[in-house]
Design a protein that fits this description.
Elements: H1 2-7, H2 12-30, H3 41-52, H4 61-88
Biased composition (Basic and acidic residues): 65-82
Region (Disordered): 25-93
Length: 93
């Protein structure tokens, strides 16, 4: 990319990226300001107020066990995915 910039050339990825960025800018400029994400301050204020109303109680033993089991399952799935990718790309390593 640096070589292309120095030589005055553009690669197809760079052109496609610039075109997509221009398309996104055009589509966001068409959206009325009140409908843009982040402009609903009242909603955000309500959410923050709900979070700050008070402390949340400790989870029950059953809920804690369910969360731990879900985390173990997620870690196991991640390991399976990583091992699958490792085996599939073993020549690259």
């Amino acid at each position: 990319m640096i070589v292309n910039a120095i030589s005055g050339k553009q690669d197809s990825l760079h052109r496609n990226t610039e075109a997509r960025l221009a398309q996104l800018r055009a589509s966001t400029s068409e959206v009325p300001p009140a409908a843009r994400v982040g402009d609903d301050h009242e909603h955000h204020q309500q959410v923050l107020t709900g979070l700050l109303e008070g402390p949340v109680g400790e989870p029950s033993e059953q809920e804690a066990e369910e969360r731990q089991q879900a985390q173990k399952t997620e870690r196991g799935d991640l390991r399976k995915t990583q091992m699958g990718e490792l085996v599939a790309n073993i020549d690259n390593y």
